Amino acid sequence: MWSTFVSVRIILIFLLSIGLQLNAGEFVQGKVIRVVDKSGEQLSGAKIELLGTGKVFYTNSKGECFVPLAQLQLAKSVKIECISYKPIQLKSLEIKDNIILEFR
Fold first, then answer.
1. DSSP readout, 2-44?
2. CA–CA distance, 3 with 10 (Å, rounded to integer)
3. Which one of 4, 43, 47, 90 has the fewest beta carbons within 10 angstroms of its own beta carbon?
4. Tell me: the pLDDT tens digits for 71-83?
5. Tell me: the pLDDT tens digits for 38-51?
């Protein structure tokens, strides 16, 4: 009985360690981009398109969007659009933490 219990514990610990090692590589480096207007108001639902990759991201209710660094480096440029604001297109290297859009 005791040996069965110990064997089961060893097997569970082994399986958990394998699972943790497999998930350890899933963390992705990226950049958080905030889209705001000139008054500093956060713009939710702004479209961030990585031109040349076919990838599109949208800002959340805080005006923030997480973009994987690998995708950002592949993009030739980035186009940001939001309703009632002028669209802006920047080179990937010009992307800062905060992107400011102007009213139309």
1. HHHHHHHHHHHHHHHHHHHHHHHTT---EEEEEEEETT--B-T
2. 11
3. 4
4. 999 999 999 999 9
5. 999 999 999 999 99
